[in-house]
Structures are given as structure tokens and as C-alpha cells.
Design a protein that fits this description.
The chain is mostly helical and 88 residues long. It has one domain: Alpha-Beta Plaits (2-Layer Sandwich), CATH 3.30.70. It is built from 3 helices and 4 strands. A two-stranded antiparallel ribbon has the order 1-4. It is elongated and about 45 Å long. The relative contact order is 0.24. GO terms for molecular function: diguanylate cyclase activity. This is Diguanylate cyclase (GGDEF) domain-containing protein.
């Protein structure tokens, strides 16, 4: 999964970008089970290992991640609502 945090960093500063990463990380950990480790593999990239999951389960998890991140409330210092863009 890739998140475009560099725009948040450039526009609103690294504190906002870091807050975005933290909220996304917390969301991922809440969506997946202990059997699916989550890790940050780059500045704005996360990986989830989904071994022994059916395609249907993977699709359900991906949709839950997308939906939960879409509904995250992330506001910059100037009270601007941050738009989240991600690829799965």
C-alpha cells in the first residue's frame, strides 16, 4: 500500500505528515489480525503479509482498509481537512 504523504509534508509540514502516517498505521493494525503482520517498508509505504488468506478474505480486508482510511479525520494545523490518497 502506498500513501502520498509527501504532499502533506510539503504543504502542511512534517508534524501533519507524521500524524497522517501514525493514524494510517493504527488503522492498519486495527483492521488486520495478529496473523497478518503490518510493517512500514518505506517513507510512505506499508506492507501486510496475508498468508493463508483466501482471495475473498484479502478483498474484504483491502476494502475495510480503504474505507477506514477514507473516513479518518485528519486536520492540518490551519484546520484544513487532509485528503487521503492511497493505492492498494
Amino acid at each position: 500500500m502506498r500513501l502520498l504523504t509527501y504532499t502533506a509534508n510539503d504543504t502542511y509540514g512534517h508534524i501533519t505528515g507524521d500524524m497522517l502516517l501514525k493514524k494510517v498505521s493504527d488503522t492498519l493494525k486495527n483492521v488486520v489480525t495478529k496473523d497478518a503482520p503490518v510493517g512500514q517498508v518505506g517513507g510512505e509505504e506499508f506492507s501486510i503479509i496475508l498468508r493463508d488468506f483466501s482471495l475473498s478474505q484479502v478483498n474484504t480486508i483491502a476494502e475495510k482498509i480503504r474505507s477506514d482510511i477514507e473516513h479518518l479525520d485528519i486536520v492540518a494545523n490551519d484546520n484544513t481537512q487532509i485528503v487521503k490518497i492511497l493505492s492498494l
